Amino acid sequence: MSIITARDVTLSFGQTPALRGASLTVEAGEVLAVMGPSGSGKSTLLHCLAGILTPDDGEIHFDGRRLDTLDETARSALRRDTFGFVFQFGQLVPELTAEENVALPLLLHGVRRTAAVRAAREWFPRLGLDGLERRRSGELSGGQAQRVALARGLVARPRVLFADEPTGALDSLTGEHVMDLLVDSAREQGTTVIVVTHEPRVAAYAGREVVVRDGKVHSLAGEPVGS
Ligand SMILES: Nc1ncnc2c1ncn2[C@@H]1O[C@H](COP(=O)(O)OP(=O)(O)OP(=O)(O)O)[C@@H](O)[C@H]1O
Fold first, then answer.
1. Which of 29, 81, 133, 154 has its Cβ near the most Cβ atoms within 10 Å?
2. Minimum CA distance residue for ligand 1 atom 28
3. Model confidence pLDDT, tens digit, residues 65-91
4. CATH code (residue 160)
5. Is residue 225 part of a domain?
6. Domain boundaries, position 107
7. Where are the beta strands (DSSP E) in 49-181?
8. Which atom, in ligand 1's list, is nearest to the CA of 47?
């Protein structure tokens, strides 16, 4: 069953076309890698699928509902309640401890602080972060910070996790470890994952790979992907 469908999505930034008729179907529960050269439109596609950007043309459906025509309030509620995010540099809040960072999405869902922090703490042994709960992001290594960001992306059990170059700032061994944990944790809780990466070794963790080229989505074999 498909969870996200993009049909002929186009989006330009001023005179620069970023997406030129991108179509893609994402199946519920799959781990999909989005590959492609720099500037081909991968992040823009991810942002459209996640309701962060609105396409100029085309349609995006999430769970049978039109996503791209929702107003900003509805899209932001969807992002908060249903989606999780992991970015290249973790983007932890430096003033908060690691466990408070992980608890953030739960607090935004209205979970009480004690319960949110308790749930957040459960992620630390799972991700090999035991003992780092009270550290601030400046006191974590890149790999540790990215695992904290991963826990934050998954703690609220999102339907879809959007990951944009989640291993981009890590050395390859640490990156593979983070991908391993990401894929295992997401599969365990049935979260669909869409991961943008330019690293084939990272994409190899996905169940399927697509390639964005010149603002369009292709299969690995080079065929345009239809919706
Ligand atoms: N906010 C923006 N303003 C203007 N142009 C933008 C903006 N964001 C992206 N672009 C342009 O849109 C095109 C697609 O960019 P996008 O970031 O989606 O590519 P990408 O495949 O994710 O690249 P990379 O692998 O380098 O991150 C590029 O030509 C880029 O310069």
1. 154
2. 39
3. 999 999 999 999 999 999 999 987 768
4. 3.40.50.300
5. no
6. 2-219
7. 57-62, 65-66, 83-86, 160-164
8. 18
